[in-house]
């Protein structure tokens, strides 16, 4: 495994040999280590690149940054440019990473050959959701996310109470320096997301995968994307919002088809 870094880029790691390139973007308040169940399953077939997103993992965590979608993507793109990739690559994102991956593919049409969106937290504008249950669930997530943003001193006790509702990132409590990136990314990338319009503009094949037990997913919102000719949706029974061995195995099989 080789490592690379740059002043304007994120920290990344390269796994595997000379196969087609697979770039992996992790979720909010996580790091590239979260891909460890998947990497060994695909590194013999792909040259796998894992990136620590801005504000998380080993990448810089500037407290002054706004952490908008474009801020994250600027650093992701700087990282990818430093790698001097010669061929279009497969871009995969988990949760937050799927939102970034979709916008990146929209901006760099000739660089991405395929998108793999894992557990994308698709939250459509409430007025567009015709299902009452889906609209209520989406509204609940928006309220919870706002709660985290306006309570930066959330206590471990409250954290423990809410972990049964959402798979909350423990690193936010353990490492206070991650709070600012978490809070601002939550607001500017997840709450103010653009995945629906980005998918509308995407021309590459898109595979979307999510677990039926995922506690941050609104299945109705995701299933609405099945109407796009370039989108295929894969449901994993009994899987939650984490890259488990079972989840990784399903992703590896999809990539090897």
Provide an overview of this structure.
The protein is α/β, with parallel strands linked by helices and 257 residues long. The protein has a single domain, classed as Alpha/Beta hydrolase fold, catalytic domain (Rossmann fold, 3-Layer(aba) Sandwich). The chain has an eight-stranded mixed beta sheet with strand order 1-2-4-3-5-6-7-8, sandwiched between helices. Helix 3 packs parallel to helix 8. The longest helix has 19 residues. The radius of gyration is 17 Å and the shape is globular. The two termini are 25 Å apart. The model has no long low-confidence stretch (mean pLDDT 89).
**What's the mean pLDDT score?**
89
User: What is the CATH class name?
Assistant: Alpha Beta
Oligomer state equals: single chain
Overall number of structural domains: 1
Largest sheet: 8 strands, mixed
Distance between the termini: 25 Å
Provide the low-confidence segments as ranges. none
Describe, in short, the structure shown.
This protein has ten helices and eight strands.
Give a quick set of tags describing it.
eight-stranded mixed beta sheet, Rossmann fold, 10 helices, 257 residues, alpha/beta
SSE blueprint and pairings:
Blueprint: E1 2-4, E2 12-15, E3 21-25, H1 39-42, E4 47-51, H2 69-82, E5 89-94, H3 96-107, E6 112-118, H4 132-150, H5 156-162, H6 171-174, H7 179-191, H8 195-201, E7 206-211, H9 219-223, E8 231-236, H10 245-256
Parallel strand pairs: 3-4, 3-5, 5-6, 6-7, 7-8
Antiparallel strand pairs: 1-2, 2-4
